[in-house]
């Protein structure tokens, strides 16, 4: 269960403001919702309700209300949810995060499913690696195993995940719905999204927020409660005009109410009606109006760029110093929380973002835009470029260039004056190192992000056409500051200090090319190689940039380096680069190495890998590549003796057939089970039949059980016992 969990699982749900008092209740009385909950009508809609609305209508608030109401009102049902978040970290906006979250909620609410999951994870897969397909298989199994349990899923903001993943997910759920009906399982799903992109589902109920009388009444209730401008006739006129212009867009109403309340608090009662009529009806035009009111603020553009393009959402103190590094680098000093509080930092950020950013409600709060439509306006509607015309033509590249420069400047501030360092650094796992990390992060809260992301932003900028040639060259040059070492060396010291695993640290002699390869920064790697930068880093974990690229499974880098003459036959200790590629199970990397002359001579450890790949069951293509390249299908060694025995022991029909087709000796001796037939006899009758069809010796002796018949008998596999006896095995062998 811990492997399914991730820190931001509930961030979006928790950040959505609770529905305003007395709002959203109308949903539970709508015929669409009632029909969705009616078990007698399941054949009409297959358990699907899809709530749709324009951006800013309040879909997420309604979904949060519906989810909460379902949990309270359906005592005999299990209710789970997922709220996609395009403004959050990677897992928050992907179907992988959704499946992991839904599965974890199921396991927590229905503990009986845990044993089924354990058997599936450890029985069918060699490693519990949660790929999308594995997660889908597990979720499907969970639905089929519900029995009399009823399950309702609420999934919000489908438009905030990748469109291709969305189509696949909806098709998967549609298939699950059909399977659930056939199995007599009560499974229902409530989706919400914008009207576009359109995804077809055969049977469903739809509810459109636009035009709903209950939704209009919710907006009216909100205005009456939150617009605090007195109770005069003029105030009533203003309320009526807001209702009339709202066009069902709750976000527009909330922003207008905020603007008018500020005017009223400033004593501008006489100007309220005029200010309201200045406010555009269109949501995007309203964003433009808000941002242009103070477009000369030097913190505005950096704040928007950081929230848009940071590698991950930033905490309050990180974002504060990130913006400050953009507008007043000379004022960036060590942070004293007594002199500068988080509340004061938050006010600064809210002012820079003109109220269009907010703090998430999570264990580790970060800043994000108040709504995804703000991001849409800034990028898709060119709102950011209209504020800063210099960004036109290359918004992404120039923004990442700016963020790179901020990170770079922050890395080079006077942090050594506040931290007493000695070389070599204490071990990464030591208490002393932990104290140093905590001290450094405490007084320079943006430093960890800056160190870990400066090259990421540089790599992205270069990929978008903003050259980093001069930047890479400058990393090796002496710097005209208090620094006595080149910037790259200072970066290595900081990166080593922040690293919690000793093996991941670098020597001070590590080259830029090596670091870029290890970090999968392909654009920067190519620039470094073009500059004829040193490429050998013998003391590093993977020795050369090629070794690092292989370890990361970066096919583009491996191909580039091999074409530039990198040696494919280097070794990392006793491990060859080819062996490393096989360990990482990257078939394309292995192909590239073989094409460039990687040595096929196998040591004992590599033979074990071939057998291990065969037992794992998911690497038939990789095994085939090795066989085609000349690896002996009957190579001996390892726990299972050979690849055929390894595949047979796991009941892997596809792998067994491929090995037999490539000349595997069905009666080869050795290993744990003595031979392939004995290995299969304790597990899988289909593989047993395949081996018998290829003349496996039914009386072969040796191995863990002595012979195949004893293996089948010891595991209680009656069918295999009869199969072996029918083939003439010696019954007295028992």
TrEMBL record:
Signal peptide: none
Keywords linked to the UniProt accession: ANK repeat, Repeat
Tagged with keyword Amino-acid biosynthesis: no
ANK repeats: 541-573, 573-605, 639-671, 707-734
Classification via InterPro entries: Ankyrin_rpt (IPR002110), Ankyrin_rpt-contain_sf (IPR036770), NPHP3-like_N (IPR056884), P-loop_NTPase (IPR027417)
One Pfam short name: Ank_2
Family annotation (Gene3D superfamilies): Ankyrin repeat-containing domain, P-loop containing nucleotide triphosphate hydrolases
Nephrocystin 3-like N-terminal domain span: 23-194
PROSITE patterns to which the protein is assigned, alphabetical: ANK_REP_REGION, ANK_REPEAT
Protein name as annotated: Ankyrin
Source species: Polychaeton citri CBS 116435
Organism placement in taxonomy: Eukaryota, Fungi, Dikarya, Ascomycota, Pezizomycotina
